[in-house]
Amino acid sequence: MKNNKANRDISFENKLLRLALFTGLLPTVFLFYALYAHELSLYLKIMLLFFVLVSVFYCAFTIRQKVIFQLRTSANLITAMQAGDHSLRAHQEAATGALNEYNQVFNQLSSALAEQQLISKEKQVLLYKVIAQIDVAIIAVDNKGSISLMNPSAEKLFSCRFEQMQGWPINTLGLQDILSGEHRKVIEFEIKEHKKKVFIHTDEYFEKGIKQQLIFITDIQNLLREEERQAWQKLLRVLSHEINNSLAPIASISETLTRLLANDSALADSTLADRTLTGRTLTDRTLTESNAELVADLQEGLLVITERANSLNIFLQRYQQLSRLPVPDKSLFALQPLLSSMALLFEQDNIQFNGEPFDIYADESQLQQVLVNLIKNAQQAMVDVPDGIIAVSWQHKADAIEIKITDEGSGINNVDNLFVPFYTTKTDGSGIGLVLSRQIISNHGGDLTISNRVDKIGAIATIYLPFSHSQ
What is the pTM of this model? Predict the structure, then answer.
């Protein structure tokens, strides 16, 4: 047992050295015996024996060194391949032989791995570019529930950087309930005090045999709003076409009849005067006066028809603004002067402004239109609160600009119908202002939300606009 263990402890090259020495020393012994039997000078015998021994040891150690060199060279090449360096190649000294075949196979393997590495890197670059440009937020979570990957869309959705969130638990993003099982559903949850409607899909993958999880989040809120806007536009186009086709002849006929009745009324008055001069009977006078009253009623009715037809036409023209809203003409301007100018437009002391100065890249006139509409709505909500304050504040948060208009009015009774066209709680309202305002903000890549205050009675309108660090 001890001999077997001792043999296993001897290295391969030392075993090869022992074999070479044994192979060379065995004929050396026979040579020594032959020299001893022959009558030669002692000096010559010693010289021959020394030369043979030196040759045997030299050849044995040379064989050992060559084997060690080849093995260590192969080990270095394999180590380089493990490190991802496939540029090294084994040197082929001979054209034939087992060692040459080994070097050829090794070099072919290295070339194949180098090609596969290049293809893998190219695919990784392609995958990274796709993940970076895709609109779907992707979050990878390890087996401990910690964030291990976030693509740029996820960073934008949650207003954070992956470098800051790496290794943090997933509940930091409020997604801890998503990992309980496979999900394919539309949910609404709050992100940075801002409610979002998203489609969430979870899946699994393995890394080093350990199960990891992927969360795919698609922000469908803007998509749903765009589909809703297009549906309303199609409906408005159909309604406008059909109603205008009916309004035009109605208005034209009513105006024509009004003129005819006016002419007939003048003619009747003239006839009545003639009959009075010629002494017509009282019955004729009574019939003529009765006809005059009927003509007056008809004229009044036709005027009502004309007025309502014109009002309905104006009503439709207002809603057609949704389908003819121009593309924002963006430019870089200071936000604070624009917001402060609102005080000059309304000339009231109950509007307070608070915010830091910074520039914004947007359509100044369209943004002003939205602000005027929101502040006007806040004032109308505070008709019964003459001492109420309208607070206009703005700040820069992460990659977004947030503008808030807070009032102390009666609040909102039906939040779900705020952005539904035709819906309004005002007696003289058209139901177009908030819809148009949100569409303007959406065209800027932002969002407009309106909700009731939690600290007191009143409402708060919040505008979110994207902020570019290159501005």
Answer: 0.50
